[in-house]
Amino acid sequence: MAKDSRRGGSDSKKGGFIEKVVKIKRCAAVVKGGRRFSFAAMVVTGDGKGKVGWGYGKANEVPPSVEKAVKQAERSLVDINIVDGSISHKVIGTFGAGKVVLIPARPGTGIIAGAAVRAVCEAVGIQDILTKSFGSNNPVVLVKSTINGLQLLRTKEDIQRLRGVAL
After folding, report:
1. CATH says 81-163 is which class?
2. Which of 81, 97, 41, 86 shows the shortest CA–CA distance to 64?
3. Crossing angle of helices 139-151/115-124, nearest 10°?
4. What is the chain's pLDDT, residue by residue, as a tens digit (167 residues)?
5. Which of 16, 90, 164, 166 has its C-alpha lying 20 to 30 A from 59's C-alpha?
């Protein structure tokens, strides 16, 4: 995995999927001989064309925990409606105490977001979006909130079909 020097995270492309390591946590258990460390990794993966998933893996070393997280992320892929590199309308995603507001932006704006939300947006293939997070700043909660918000998106065609009227 290539190290991204700007944000401290790492990302790679394997088999057409974009993998982004959002967070690596280290846990220490005190035993008779000293401390025993274990690691947990949060990974977001997507195809850059409207599919995204997240995974959380735990192991005694960093690489196995990342591999477990990637496997889980690829199993949890969901489809997201994106329109011209952005989203179709403003939406609020929630999970637990975290809330993420996702606002569509004009072309050329870029991704205005924190590290966890940015990883999700880049993996799903969004190029222009404005975001703001409220409540919890835990990366795991922010990723789940962002994916929840993206799943709530509806296209104009979906609305027309559901309401039975032409917009």
Report:
1. alpha beta
2. 41
3. 40
4. 444 434 445 666 666 889 999 999 999 999 999 999 999 999 999 999 999 999 999 999 999 999 999 999 999 999 999 988 899 999 999 999 999 999 999 999 999 999 999 999 999 999 999 999 999 999 999 999 999 999 999 888 888 888 888 87
5. 16
In this structure, the number of other CB atoms found within 10 A of the CB of residue 156 comes to: 12
The whole-angstrom separation of Cα 48 and Cα 52 is 8
Tokens of 82: 């994106």
The CATH number for 2-78, chosen from 2.40.160.20, 3.30.160.20, 3.30.70.2860, 3.40.50.300, is 3.30.160.20
Distance CA 167, CA 164 (A): 10
Domain with CATH 3.30.230.10 in the chain: 81-163
- Within 13 Å of residue 136, how many CA atoms lie on the same side as its CB? 17
pTM of the predicted model as reported, rounded to 2 decimal places: 0.85
